Amino acid sequence: MKRQLQERYKQTDAAREAFWRTLGALDPRTLTPIAGGDEWPGRRQAWRLIHRPAGSTLLVTDGMSDFDANSDEPSVGFELELALETDEPLGPMAHSWQYQVLARVGDEVTGHERLRKWLQQGMMSMEVSGEDMPPELVTQEGRVGVLLGIKPSTLPLSFDMPEGKVRLVTIQVLLPTELEFLLAEGKGGSEELARRFMASGQEHRVRAQRPSVV
Length: 214
Known about the structure:
Helices cover 32% and strands 23% of the residues. By secondary structure, the chain is α+β, with helices and mostly antiparallel strands. Helix 4 (176-185) packs across helix 5 (189-200).
């Protein structure tokens, strides 16, 4: 049984890495926490760094599409992976604010099944802690707004794994004025913000230094 599990992990890792390599040059380093990951499908938590051909950097979760470690049934876990792309300087990944956004969003997604269901259906927004974030992104309440699921023109919407299809969910970080607009607009706020990001040419690419789209 242990050998079968190891082989299953090997096939999963190989398939996901092959997909990451279609997006750019995969950094050989994998960021994994010292502890944690029990809420992730395969009980392992990791992030990867991909250097895109146009010069931007893509940070992705690497394990939300693991199979369910508690079942022998075919599975791609949460059926999604998160992606944050930026063309601003990143520095050491573990200490970058961009990684902190990805990790904090990841904690929310792995901890709440209803969020994962919403992400399978389309876009959604949330707020995460603004601790150690660029001040221009932080609201008066000390939070940072994010919009998940903008459809990118430069990334695939999904990819295939041996045991199923996985959605690639983009993360866009909002300025406080954009978050205020989204909350005031209600149900249509996410769609309108996404439309404006697309019209501005920014799409899903994350920048702290940029003009507001509202």
